[in-house]
Design brief:
Shape: elongated
Number of helices: 2
Order of helices and strands: HH
Helix content: 25-40%
Structural class: mainly alpha
Strand content: under 5%
Length: 68
C-alpha cells in the first residue's frame, strides 16, 4: 500500500497542504514452507575449479607446482 501511495506523491500541490500524519501497519500472515523448483546457487563447479587452478598457478613460483 505504501509503495503505491509513493507514486502519487508527485501529483500533490505542495504549496497549500498542511502535513498529514498517519500510522500504517503491515499485516503479516501465517508462515509456511515454499518449494523452490529449479533453484541453483549459480556456481559452475568446473569453471570455479579452473579459476582456482589459474590463480594458484599464477601466484606460485615455477617449482614446485602442485597438482590440484
Amino acid at each position: 500500500m505504501r509503495k503505491r501511495l509513493r507514486g502519487l506523491i508527485q501529483f500533490i500541490d505542495r504549496t497549500s497542504i498542511k502535513p498529514v500524519y498517519s500510522v500504517l501497519t503491515d499485516e503479516i500472515g501465517e508462515s509456511g514452507d515454499v518449494a523452490l523448483l529449479d533453484f541453483s546457487t549459480g556456481i559452475n563447479l568446473a569453471q570455479h575449479r579452473r579459476k582456482v587452478e589459474a590463480y594458484i598457478h599464477g601466484h606460485t613460483p615455477p617449482w614446485p607446482r602442485w597438482r590440484i
